[in-house]
RNA sequence: GGCGCGGUGGCAGAGUGGUUAUGCAGCGGACUGCAACUCCGUGUACGCCGGUUCGAUUCCGACCCGCGCCUCCA
């Protein structure tokens, strides 16, 4: 039985999908006005692992992750760049896909964009007005009336009165209550807009997710996830909109990833302390970044630092070393390691524990190597690749992993030729020449590994 | 101020009412022409103070400290 921590109940619960064997999951994706940063990568990778694991356990997962392609920040950025907002969003969407692909994140089943769901959004707003949960204000905006929904605050555990008492709630004359939020925003002159019964405008941020998730997954679905800062107000507002519009319970399990921090502060756009995925990938192999993210639990905070990335790289190398030179066996049945892996992953996707199982496999594999037990080596290699694959790791050919990133000015053939020259020098006991060749290669970023079987090489 | 989360060995990071993951670094060893790499072995821990218990790092309470949300942010 898989257990998942539910933000709604604040505890781990047995996971029972609405339809046995099928999981319907929605995750809030990117607002595409800039490149993805590490915080986005965390959510992307976390829910990728969750999807992979659920599928590994036999569930048919329908994973929907939206793209917010219209909002204030997009319009402002497009204006600053002197480009149309669609040029900007298309560029950022393809950049996002590139980043995801490099991190080994599988594509969701559906990737709805807000601008493709304007009709559904308008229909839902219309429904909310009819049921008395929303109202058109004098300024052309349409607001959700927070007072009309008794359940408001049940996800974030906030009381409406506390929210109203807070000084940071926007006081807007057009709103009946300061906590009300926009469903439809009237267009300013010259702004991109769509026609609606309440005048030209565009959707508010929260309504798009309600409209798209309902359209793609139905009124009630299993899992809704996202980043830690979406819990309030975004997800709280989604619940209010959806439950008021459909009259049904919205989501069974709410999942939130932990924040990425830099120097003890949350990595965020507003603090400006964020690292984009692409700039991190300039310095570290993508799989190392993924390993770093997966090595701690998805709900915990993690600190981004050079040291942590370097350590992740060293640890990943250890696992690939175990696989080096082995052809994994085929159709290897489940082992005790698989069971251990399932046990920790069943417990709210404990990827840190899962990685420890991976190290257990690699330790056993090394033992088999010492024993010279070829069958056992091939069996364990298969298990390691299989379980690693559930985390989206260890799917590369080990040689490719070790040799990636070698400077272009040195071809594999040249390296092999130098290795051979060194081997000859060593045979003639000309160690000065042998060491000269070794040093020369090291200077160029190539490290030689001597072993009984001969010499292999990898990037430095 | 309101709500929520957390404090584990030098570092990263799981977990558990008693047998104390895993990795990195350190140390010892094997291997090596010498090294590096690799492999094997190995020590150190549960913020503070009370309570419950035969026994608490694990449960309960207080305290200290850190963090997140309450405003756009994954």
From TrEMBL:
Location, primary (coarse class): cytoplasm
Coiled-coil positions: 415-444
Record has ATP-binding as a keyword: yes
Any Pfam family: tRNA-synt_1e
Residues binding ATP: 269
UniProt xrefs under SMART domains: DALR_2
Substrates-to-products reaction catalysed: tRNA(Cys) + L-cysteine + ATP = L-cysteinyl-tRNA(Cys) + AMP + diphosphate
Superkingdom classification of source: Bacteria
Entry's Gene Ontology molecular function annotations: ligase activity
UniProt keyword terms in alphabetical order: Aminoacyl-tRNA synthetase, ATP-binding, Coiled coil, Cytoplasm, Ligase, Metal-binding, Nucleotide-binding, Protein biosynthesis, Zinc
Protein biosynthesis in keyword set: yes
Subcellular location: Cytoplasm
SUPFAM superfamilies: Anticodon-binding domain of a subclass of class I aminoacyl-tRNA synthetases (SSF47323), Nucleotidylyl transferase (SSF52374)
Family affiliation: Belongs to the class-I aminoacyl-tRNA synthetase family.
Descriptive protein name: Cysteine--tRNA ligase
The organism of origin for this protein: Marinobacter zhanjiangensis
């Amino acid at each position: 039985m898989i257990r998942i921590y539910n933000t709604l109940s604040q505890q781990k619960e047995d996971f029972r999908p609405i339809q046995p064997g099928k999981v319907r999951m929605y995750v809030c994706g990117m607002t595409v006005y800039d490149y993805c940063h590490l915080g986005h990568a965390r959510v992307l990778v976390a829910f990728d692992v969750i999807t992979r694991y659920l599928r590994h356990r036999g569930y048919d997962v329908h994973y929907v992750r939206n793209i917010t392609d219209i909002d204030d920040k997009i319009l402002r950025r497009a204006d600053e760049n002197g480009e149309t907002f669609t040029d900007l969003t298309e560029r950022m969407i393809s950049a996002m896909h590139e980043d995801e692909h490099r991190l080994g994140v599988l594509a969701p089943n559906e990737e709805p964009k807000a601008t493709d769901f304007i009709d559904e959004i308008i229909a839902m707003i219309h429904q909310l007005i009819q049921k008395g949960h929303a109202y058109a204000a004098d300024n052309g905006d349409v607001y959700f009336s927070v007072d009309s929904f008794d359940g408001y605050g049940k996800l974030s555990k906030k009381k409406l009165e506390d929210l109203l008492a807070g000084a940071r709630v926007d006081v807007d004359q057009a709103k009946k209550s300061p906590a009300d939020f926009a469903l439809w925003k009237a267009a300013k002159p010259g702004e991109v807009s769509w026609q609606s019964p309440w005048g030209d405008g565009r959707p508010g941020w929260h309504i798009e997710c309600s409209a798209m998730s309902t359209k793609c997954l139905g009124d009630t679905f299993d899992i809704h996830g996202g980043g830690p800062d979406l819990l309030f107000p975004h997800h709280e507002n989604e619940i209010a909109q959806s439950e008021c519009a459909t009259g049904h319970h919205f989501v069974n399990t709410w999942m939130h990833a932990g924040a990425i921090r830099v120097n003890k502060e949350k990595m965020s756009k507003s603090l400006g302390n964020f690292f984009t995925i692409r700039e991190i990938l300039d310095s570290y192999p993508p799989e190392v970044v993924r390993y770093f993210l997966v090595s701690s639990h998805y709900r915990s905070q993690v600190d981004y630092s050079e040291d942590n990335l370097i350590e992740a790289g060293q640890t990943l190398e250890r696992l690939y070393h175990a696989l080096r030179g082995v052809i994994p066996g085929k159709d290897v049945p489940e082992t005790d390691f698989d069971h251990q892996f399932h046990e920790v992953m069943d417990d709210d996707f404990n990827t840190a524990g899962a990685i420890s199982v991976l190290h257990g496999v690699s330790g056993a594999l090394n033992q088999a190597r010492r024993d010279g037990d070829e069958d056992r080596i091939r069996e364990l290699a298969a298990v390691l690749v299989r379980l690693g694959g559930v985390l989206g790791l260890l799917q590369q050919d080990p040689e490719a992993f070790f040799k990636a990133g070698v400077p272009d000015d040195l071809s594999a053939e040249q390296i092999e030729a130098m290795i051979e020259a060194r081997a000859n020098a060593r045979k003639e006991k000309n160690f000065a020449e042998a060491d000269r060749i070794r040093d020369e290669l090291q200077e160029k970023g190539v490290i030689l590994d001597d072993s009984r079987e001969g010499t292999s090489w990898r990037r430095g």
